[in-house]
Amino acid sequence: MNLMIDEILAYNKRFVEEKGYEPYVTTKYPDKKLAILTCMDTRLTELLPKALGLKNGDAKIIKNAGGVILDPFGTEIRSILVAIYELHADTVMVIHHTNCGACHMSGDAMIHHMLDHGIDPKSIKIARLCGVDFDKWLYGFGDTEKSVVDTARIIKNHPLVPADITVRAFIIDSVTGLLTEVPFNP
Ligand SMILES: [Zn+2]
Questions:
Q1: CA 165 to ligand 1 center in whole angstroms
Q2: Ligand 1 is a single-atom ion; what residues have CB below 5 A from it?
Q3: Residue 129: how many CB atoms within 10 A of its CB?
Q4: Residues 131-163: pLDDT tens digits?
Q5: How is the beta sheet containing 34-39 ordered, strand by strand?
Q6: Model-level pTM?
Q7: How far is the CA of 181 from the centre of ligand 1 (A)?
Q8: I need a labelling partner for 160 at 20 to 30 A (CA). Which of 3, 109, 110, 130 fits?
Q9: How far is CA 9 from CA 4, 12, 13, 25, in A?
């Protein structure tokens, strides 16, 4: 029983009945041939597309904690490759943001939170045995300019990303939406 989800389900039923979806109907192809890798931060949910002038159907938006790529053959690159090869995107914007929560993460602190929430210490041990390096996996990147450039470089230099794809790095202000480019040499 979760009251909040019940409310969402009730709203959803009304939304569809009243054809609230009509202004959003579009195709699966991004009209601006644009893919964006950014953070899952809730301050950006509406602010980022509004501040960039993007509407439904314009861009493929890929999100995770921090908007980073940790594994060069992980799920973010997979999504970017799908955007390029299946959905005809030719431009990638990597957008990190000011005051990001993922900045201040640490593997140790998160392990403490896990234990506080009742996770069995054995599970932490098993994860380690399975090859999880908590410090690397849950690291806080500290320097936003460096993290956005590191991420953009991984995409630009990726062996499966064609050379003619534009990749640029930005930091968005989490309050005003101001976008600042961070230039980099590939
Ligand atoms: Zn963030």
A1: 25
A2: 39, 41, 100, 102
A3: 8
A4: 999 888 887 777 899 999 999 999 999 999 999
A5: 59-64, 34-39, 91-97, 166-172, 179-181
A6: 0.91
A7: 17
A8: 130
A9: 9, 5, 6, 21
The proportion of the chain whose per-residue pLDDT surpasses 70, expressed as a percent, equals: 100
pLDDT digits (tens, 9 = 90+) for 83-121: 999 999 999 999 999 999 887 788 888 999 999 999 999
| Ordered domains of the chain (ranges, CATH) | 32-97+144-186 (3.40.1050.10), 106-139 (no CATH)
Distance 12 CA to ligand 1 centre (A): 28
Q: How many helices (H) and strands (E) does the chain have?
A: 7, 5
- Distance (angstroms) between ligand 1 centre and the Cα of 16 equals 31
Tokens 């041990």 correspond to 125
pLDDT score for 102? 82
Distance from the alpha carbon of residue 170 to the mean position of ligand 1, in angstroms: 13
| Spatial separation of the C-alpha atoms in residues 25 and 56, rounded to whole Å | 8
Mention every residue, 6+ apart, whose C-beta is less than 8 A from residue 113.
Answer: none
